[in-house]
Amino acid sequence: MAKKKITEIVEEITADFLAENGLELYNSEFVKEGKDWFLRVYIDRQQEEETEDKEEVYVSTDDCEKVSRFLSEELDRLDPIEQNYYLEVSSPGLDRELIKEKDFIRFCGRLVDISLYKAIDGKKTYQGILKGLTEDNSIVITDEKEEEIEFPREQVAKARLAVIF
Fold this sequence. Notes:
Layout: H1 3-20, E1 23-33, E2 36-45, H2 61-78, E3 86-90, H3 101-106, E4 111-120, E5 123-133, E6 138-142, E7 148-152, E8 156-161
Parallel strand pairs: 2-3
Antiparallel strand pairs: 1-2, 4-5, 4-8, 5-6, 6-7
């Protein structure tokens, strides 16, 4: 079964269960690392309308355990994956990768790290405040010099929330 198909199955299986528990599927991947296959499922809290004083609510280990048990049982019942694999359920983390358009909307105004496939002006990594996406799907940030920089999505290897300690 193709990798994409398995992630689609995971999305279908988990949709109602996650919604009932105030969660949502952030991302999933089915990848081979060495000789082992991994089904990684990243869950997040459903996001309500943002207010200025609202604190971000995070996924707990109990949430991950509950989803893991549910998904494991459903995958055993349906048996859609031919090979042996490890199931991992976790939150996307503080340094989460921004993948979907809704991620770029949700985290607008936050500090992000941008990694490029090819260097621009001798740099492959940039950090700045996320301004959002343009109509042609480019990522826009404001750097430390308060200059706006636009990166076409096809040139961006990863866009992640920056973590400052």
